[in-house]
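Schema walk-through. Below, the input block comes first and the output block second. Nothing else is stored per chain. Lengths vary across the set, and this one has 96 residues.
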Amino acid sequence: MRRWSLKIFAALIAVFALVYVADWIVLQIREHSGSAHDSVVVDNSYVIHQKNGKMEYLYDPPLPTPCVRSLLPHQAQSACWWLVRHTEPQKDITAN
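--- output ---
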């Protein structure tokens, strides 16, 4: 049983590595053609939890956020398909 689980785990790691490398290669090809990067307008908001139990909401103006047109994140940028679906992230802040 343990050998099977180790083989399955190793196979999953290998598949993920192959997908990541293939995605990186496709991104490099897109960079040479000029279509690898894009931007998505994101509305950031902050939820501040105060000591008295109340919450305060702060909103940033919408900003274009750079992204890469790939399956996985690369070059410290999110994938555009994911960023399009998460355009209103909320960050929780606890007041001291």
